[in-house]
Design goal:
With 263 residues, this protein is α/β, with parallel strands linked by helices. It is built from 8 helices and 7 strands, in the order E-H-E-H-E-H-E-H-E-H-E-H-H-H-E. Helix 2 links the parallel strand 2 and strand 3. The structure holds nicotinamide-adenine-dinucleotide.
């Protein structure tokens, strides 16, 4: 018996899907039957993700997006609607991190991280919601927060603030869009080995004199399940939140972290 595709006929945008968690999310949504737009700053990486999906029999297109420039968001959505006719699911995944001790943070870091992670996420969510409202059939929006958004971080305070802000935006949008049946949720991953995590390890090693790779190993000790996550363990939750099975869940931030945070 074949497993029914939960997202057949749906159209999804996944931002930052050229690598890392986003690439896996795009792949999972496509394997569930969605037509997927890989929205990226890095178009070469985006095309690689598209090729992987199409080679596996899925449907995908690469679209240009610089989440740090709000004016690139509406044309990106228009391009997706032109390609696939509608928009049902937005996965606000793109983001960036900087490791820097609290007392060393300067305005440039604040502006750069907040601009992409918080401002970009807000306006991408809003633009997708406007398209979904126009269609009048509801929709799903899932944004990538982090367990860093659940508390403070001495060496990545701006990143943590941006990720906590994403939880607030998720709750506000869930309230504002509930009457349109647009359900809005966030996911807070723990440690997922991606190029971003390699960057975190490298920056911690450089700034604090750790041996490369040891920062992650020390953190894994704090995970009750004593391991890092597979990106597929995050994308499975995204697919659930994008599907009709989660029809009574909105305004939530769900930890996918092996038990690191329990609030
Ligand atoms: N890896 C982890 O352990 C972890 C943990 C918690 C949360 N997260 C969050 O999950 C998301 C994905 O993380 P990842 O580890 O896969 O990151 P990554 O750095 O490996 O990949 C991020 C992707 O986003 C794209 N991107 C960056 N800036 C962009 C912009 N301005 N416009 C469009 N695209 C842009 C990059 O080109 C890249 O392909 C991020 O929001 C991150 O904060 C990751």
């Amino acid at each position: 018996m074949s497993i029914p595709e939960r997202l057949a006929g749906k159209v999804a945008i996944v931002t930052g899907a050229g690598r890392g968690i986003g690439r896996t999310i795009a792949d999972t949504l496509a394997s569930e039957g969605a037509s997927v737009a890989v929205a990226e700053l890095n178009m070469e990486a985006a095309q690689e993700s598209v090729d992987l999906i199409t080679e596996a029999g899925g449907t995908a297109v690469a679209v240009a997006l610089n989440l740090g420039k709000v004016e690139t968001i509406a044309p990106m959505i228009d391009q997706v609607v032109a390609a696939f006719g509608r928009l049902d699911i937005l996965v606000n995944n793109a983001g960036l991190v900087q490791i820097n001790p609290f007392l060393k943070v300067e305005e440039e870091e604040w502006d750069r991280v907040m601009n992409v992670n918080l401002k970009g996420t807000f306006f991408c969510l809003q633009a997708a919601a406007k398209q979904m409202e126009k269609q009048g059939e509801g929709g799903r929006i899932i944004s990538m927060s982090s367990i860093s958004g659940r508390g403070g971080r001495a060496d990545s305070s701006v990143y943590a603030a941006s990720k906590m802000g994403i939880i607030s935006i998720t709750r506000s949008a869930a309230l504002a869009l509930a009457d349109k049946n647009i359900l809005v949720n966030a996911i807070c991953p723990g440690i997922v080995p991606t190029p971003m995590w390699d960057q975190i390890d490298d920056e911690r090693a450089r700034l604090f004199g750790y041996e490369a790779g040891t920062a992650r190993a020390a953190l894994v000790e704090q995970v009750p399940l004593k391991r890092v996550a597979e990106a597929e363990e995050v994308s499975a939750v995204v697919a659930f939140l994008a599907s009709s099975e989660s029809s009574f869940i909105t305004g939530q931030a769900i930890n996918v972290d092996g038990g690191m945070e329990m609030d």
